[in-house]
Design goal:
alpha/beta; Rossmann fold; binds D-glutamic acid
Length: about 230
């Protein structure tokens, strides 16, 4: 089984790592669509075409199933691509309904447009540049901290936080510093378990991984981030 994973950059590596840990496939193709980063400030029409082009590319390279390692693509394009490509496509849809205490929901501006109704106890934060800042510097975190700190200041009393963009997972330490009591949700493990349950079983401990870049080629950096996520 070959699984293709797609995102605008390093965010989806969190999903790839979870799929590998769950032994979903024996071959993975990771499509890093840097030419279109950031997805989170684009409109639904553009994202549908981006998603379709990515799925077609992954299918041509041999993917039997595709996973969007990205909330933004999932909320805006999942239904659209499912009607247009042969391999099954899985996505990461943020779940504000899981939050019950005083909570912070963080998503890209585009994902926020597709969220179901948010309860009064949940605040919504849509930091427009955060995915690009993280993508540009991780594993460093100085610019991420400088950008995010003032935005997080009002939420110190939150009991829960939902990271509704896979890039934001790399900012978990910064977020925990400002929201020290918050339980963090992101949906990634849940998605990997779902894909594992649906696809035919694979027990490969040593899958092959191919990286494809539409923007700057960064194979070494990606493999190093992935190996730290797999530890
Ligand atoms: N990592 C993606 C997400 O989960 C998109 C980030 C971006 O390109 O804006 O939403």
């Amino acid at each position: 089984m070959t699984v293709g994973v797609m995102d605008s950059g390093i965010g989806g590596l969190n999903v790839l790592a979870a799929l590998i840990k769950n032994r979903v496939a024996d071959r993975y193709i990771y499509l890093s669509d840097g030419a279109n980063l950031p997805y989170g400030n684009k409109g639904g029409g553009a994202l549908k075409e981006i998603a379709l082009a990515g799925c077609r590319d992954l299918a041509e390279r041999g993917a039997n199933a595709i996973v969007f390692g990205c909330n933004t693509l999932s909320v805006s394009a999942l239904d659209y691509v499912r009607k247009r490509v042969v391999p099954p496509v899985f996505g990461l849809v943020p779940r504000p309904d899981l939050l019950c205490g005083r909570a912070l929901m963080m998503t890209t501006p585009t994902t926020a447009l597709y969220l179901p109704k948010i309860e009064k106890n949940v605040s919504l934060l849509t930091p427009a540049e955060l995915a690009s800042v993280i993508d540009g510097e991780y594993p460093k975190s100085e610019a991420t901290r400088a950008y995010l700190s003032p935005l997080l200041l009002p939420y110190g009393d939150c009991e829960e936080a939902y990271l509704g963009c896979t890039h934001y997972l790399y900012a978990t330490e910064v977020i925990k510093r400002f929201l020290p009591h918050a339980k963090i949700y992101d949906g990634v493990e849940h998605l990997a378990a779902l894909v594992r349950a649906v696809l035919p079983p694979s027990e490969s401990k040593n899958p092959s991984i191919e990286m494809v870049f539409t923007g700057k080629k960064q194979v070494e950096r990606y493999l190093s981030v992935l190996s730290s996520l797999l530890k």
